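quick one before i forget lol
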Amino acid sequence: MRIIGLDVSKSSVSCCLLESKPSDVREFYYDCRFHHFQNNQAGISGLLALKPDVAILEPTGVNYSKFWTQLLTRAGVEIRLVGHKELRRYRENHLGLPDKDDDADSLAIACYYFDYCSDRSRWVRVLDPVVSRIRELILRLNHLNKVQSPIINRARQDLAWQFPEVALVTSKRSVSGDVPLLWGWLAGERKSKKYDQLYAKTAGLGLTDSVKFHSQRICSLQREEQMIEDELSVLLKDGRFAKYIQVFEEFNFGDRLQATIISQIFPLENFFGEDGKPSVKIRKGRISGKPTKRYLSLRRFQKALGYAPTQESSGDISKNKVSGGSAVCRKAIWQWVFSAVEPARRRAASPSLLVSRKIENKDEFEVIHLGSWVDKEKKAGVPVALVRSRAAVKAVKLLFKKLVNVLG
């Protein structure tokens, strides 16, 4: 077996080719011939000339590693991904390599394969191509949202003195996908008698080119968002997601949230044990000393969605906090609690959905029960931020239970 460890940078990759694990890794580091290739045709040819059977690398995002992983996959090379934390601990505690550099990392990555090649839990799963594309699109949507916010804020500040009557107007894309009417009118891309009449009587000092340019940027970003959402809609129609979507509808998840969660949890079987069922272990409690059930699959599921609690204790201080997992997913679920669970008017499922699912009692939808629990906690005087956080955790646990029942 020709195993190649890759440490990926922005425009190059450092490679270490091994056929067996060196007996003295630290000494081997000084004698090893490392290969370095640029992201160009010569680099591609050089890497493939090494004829690797398996390529190991860290999941450095959809941009840097994508170039090399797709290239190697097309060449028939098996791809394995090792987590950043796992590699750092392995390099420092097991190999004792010198100060961190790209070559040392590529050597550690290659050695990692020989120690853990048969242990599935030691590797980051390689995503299904459809799921990988969904995750890529979700990240791009979040990027576009971050880019738009400061542009919109700047435009509104200018409108406050140029055309104050519309400075606080909320304008969204139409059902047909046209750019928002306000920004389209300001950019000169859409006509509106309403805004023509308002502007004729404005108390402002008059529109400048700066607002027009900002509006054109907003319209361009909105069109890109629409294209991404259209592609996501098509991808979510994949038959393998049908039962997942069925459960998501009970929570009244929007399309973006559905896609975000799918990108983190599909297939659900990845969270199960070797027997293909949710892992539950009974261990003696460290404090109580009594047998305690540990729901390992549920915890892994929570962690993937960004809602697995971790305990930090020191002396008399003990606290739990949420860390790890997908920050994008954690934020999306929190926004869903804030916008779809907490407001009573948003909890009801649409009539068309009730008809399509042949459900006579709308209270069967989980968002109704979660909303009632939120109301009860708020009336009891629990801080709102804590109620929202707990509601998100309850939703994630309930979602796992529902998915297991439907998919099982």
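fyi The beta strands are 3-8, 12-18, 35-38, 54-57, 78-81, 280-284, 291-295, 309-314, 317-322.
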